[in-house]
Specification:
Residues 6-12 and 343-355 have low confidence and may be disordered. The chain has helices at residues 2-8, 22-46, 52-78, 137-173, 179-194, 210-215, 241-256, 277-281, 341-344, 347-351; strands at residues 96-97, 102-103, 109-111, 116-118, 123-125, 130-132, 258-262, 298-304, 308-313, 327-331, 335-337. The chain has ten helices and eleven strands. The relative contact order is 0.07. By secondary structure, it is an alpha+beta fold. The strands form four sheets. The chain has a five-stranded antiparallel beta sheet with strand order 10-9-8-7-11, covered by helices on one side. Strands 1-2 form a two-stranded antiparallel ribbon. Strands 3-4 form a two-stranded antiparallel ribbon.
Length: 355
């Protein structure tokens, strides 16, 4: 509240000039970067926002940021308090300041940077571009206390995120996989279970030994084994076992895809404000494109999230010469399932026992 009161009392906004200094610019830049990265890192990688722990963690991060900035701006704009110009007490036991043309109050000192006599002056701090003294001593000290605590919280999130990523990376390396191949293997298990097939998918490049798998990536020379075109495979598999499974999954994706009709125009914006708050805040964090939609168009959706879908736009033969596919993410709110697909949606269920 003190910061707000000080802001509305600015005369000609002179106090805002304190921001135009290397100290506040660096300090605010560090606060902004650390806070933003900690929040993004926490939501995307460490602790999902839809969980109770993730929500509490996110609120704590916001709380650190708000309290740090409140005390920082309070210390900067409220200031230390200055001895009134021309102040003359009824005593002779005081020093006289020739610059301010006034007596120095007890515990006050003249600051060359501020060019004023500061009440209960502690020091002039370049990070707030102001003196620390009588009125802002508490705010400045709280800022020094809260900033390290917030940094410790952010550092914990960064360390846990890196540890989680490292653990996941080493886990797939020891199985001689990549992230994409792990995903393909999971989809293979889902496909077999969905259609109740009497088959087992065996990942062909797992050598059966963690040490042998490890050596496929890490070597003493720093050069990976092989030529990158052909790979050693385990017994019972061949070079194209994984490719065959990918072709099966692509065919299955076409069967299980759902047709939607566009009922609202969509500009292709990454985070559209006009499609609802939940759609705005749950935008897919990926480099995959968004596609523009116009009312009346048709989309073949292949996967999706709670408020977003991913699919291919069904194009006319004369749509755009040389363009074979237009695919990407779009808000679920902009489309509705085609009535004709309500019946055909049961087709895969009936086929799964016959395939």
């Amino acid at each position: 509240m003190g910061t707000f009161c000080s802001v509305i009392k600015f005369e000609n906004l002179q106090e805002l000039k304190r921001l135009c200094h290397w100290g506040p610019i660096i300090a605010l830049g560090v606060i902004a970067i650390c806070s933003t990265m900690a929040m993004i890192d926490s939501v995307l990688w460490y602790w999902p926002l839809h969980t109770t722990g993730g929500s509490v963690n996110f609120i704590m991060l916001i709380n650190w940021t708000v309290m740090i900035l409140y005390n920082y701006f309070n210390a900067m704009f409220v200031g230390p308090g200055f001895v009134p110009l021309g102040w003359k007490p009824d005593t002779m036991y005081l020093q006289y300041c020739k610059v301010c043309q006034a007596y120095k109050a007890p515990r006050s000192h003249h600051c060359r940077k501020c060019n004023r006599c500061v009440m209960k002056m502690d020091h002039h701090c370049p990070w707030i571009n102001n003196c620390c003294g009588y009125q802002n001593h508490a705010s400045f000290t709280l800022f020094l206390l809260l900033a390290p605590l917030g940094c410790i919280h952010a550092a914990f999130i960064f360390v846990m995120t890196m540890y989680t990523q490292l653990y996941h990376r080493m886990k797939i390396i020891l199985r001689n996989k990549t992230s994409i191949e792990s995903w393909i293997e999971e989809k293979a298990k889902d496909r077999i279970q969905y259609y109740q097939l009497d088959e087992v998918f065996v990942f062909p490049y797992d050598m059966g030994s963690r040490w042998r798998n490890f050596k496929q990536v890490f070597t003493w020379s720093g050069v990976p084994e092989g030529d990158g075109l052909e790979w050693p495979v385990r017994e019972g598999c061949h070079q194209y076992s994984l490719t065959i499974e990918q072709l099966k999954q692509k065919a299955d994706k076409r069967v299980r895809s759902v047709r939607y009709k566009v009922i609202e125009d969509y500009s292709g914006a990454c985070c559209p404000l006009n499609k609802g708050i939940k759609t705005f805040f749950t935008s897919p964090c990926t480099e995959e494109p968004r596609i523009q939609l116009q009312k009346g168009e048709f989309i073949l959706a292949t996967r999706g999230l709670r408020y977003w879908l991913y699919g291919d736009k069904i194009l006319d033969d004369s749509f755009i010469e040389g363009v074979s596919r237009i695919r990407g993410w779009f808000p679920r709110k902009c489309v509705e399932k085609c009535p004709c697909d309500a019946e055909t949606d049961q087709a895969p269920e009936g086929e799964k026992k016959n395939r």
